[in-house]
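Structure in, sequence out. Go:
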């Protein structure tokens, strides 16, 4: 474990945006925090990054570990230039790798001295992610990094994330759509209305659930998780029904939590 939440709650007004969440994130893999809009993903990421303090519970990080946060399309002054922002990050992170940064900018077709406001939404997101990856922070937290990318950019960015995780980094990303990470996610944490409804390693999850036709009789030995369109997700490793995708497992848990 490199960073974890222990019974963390965050309240805005009367709303528990994050409600008693406990989850651990390790190094060397890609962890995906998934949920619909308003599920509490960004708030959870900001708690992990230290931008917000929990109202109760604890955020625990490995002593001495550095953190970095990347918003979905950057969160920088539009008057600043990309070169200025690079200089700031080089001051913040002593292991900042300028070669990685310049390589990613070239792939994103971003000039090193562009004004941030002149970049497209996809370029802003790519630039923000480039700063974080080049920072060499121990814990890298990305807010909706794929949101504005086309299919080619998504595929390339996922390759970069995988290479980054293999450098023993803790990579945590949020997404509305787990299908984008079906082949990349090593760990999944699903939120629904601020509550953690599912957390586990992808390989274990895929081996532990099956989909059964909605009208079929289900053995009492199987735990029914929730509906997935006209089928039901059940917890079993038996060869019944059909294999569930990662997206279907998440959907079953989200639907089951709201039924």
């Amino acid at each position: 474990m490199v960073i974890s939440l222990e019974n963390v709650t965050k309240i805005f007004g009367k709303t528990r945006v994050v409600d008693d969440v406990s989850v651990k994130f390790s190094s060397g893999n890609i962890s995906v925090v998934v949920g619909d809009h308003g599920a509490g993903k960004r708030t959870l990421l900001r708690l992990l990054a230290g931008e917000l303090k929990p109202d109760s519970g604890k955020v625990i990080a490995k002593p001495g570990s550095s953190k970095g946060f990347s918003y979905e399309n950057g969160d920088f002054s539009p008057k600043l230039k990309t070169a200025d922002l690079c200089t700031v990050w080089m001051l913040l992170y002593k292991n900042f790798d300028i070669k990685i940064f310049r390589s990613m900018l070239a792939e994103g077709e971003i000039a090193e001295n562009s004004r941030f406001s002149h970049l497209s939404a996809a370029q802003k997101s790519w630039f923000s992610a480039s700063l974080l990856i080049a920072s060499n922070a121990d814990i890298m937290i990305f807010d909706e990094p794929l949101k504005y990318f086309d299919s080619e950019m998504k595929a390339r960015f996922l390759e970069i994330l995988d290479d980054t995780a293999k450098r023993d980094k803790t990579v945590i990303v949020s997404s509305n759509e787990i299908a984008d990470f079906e082949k990349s996610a090593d760990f999944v944490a699903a939120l629904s209305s601020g509550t953690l409804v599912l957390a586990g390693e992808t390989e274990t999850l895929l081996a532990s659930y099956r989909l059964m036709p909605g009208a079929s009789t289900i053995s009492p030995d199987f735990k029914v998780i929730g509906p997935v369109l006209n089928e039901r997700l059940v917890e079993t490793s038996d060869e019944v029904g059909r294999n569930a995708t990662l997206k279907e497992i998440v959907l079953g848990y989200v639907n089951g939590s709201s039924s």
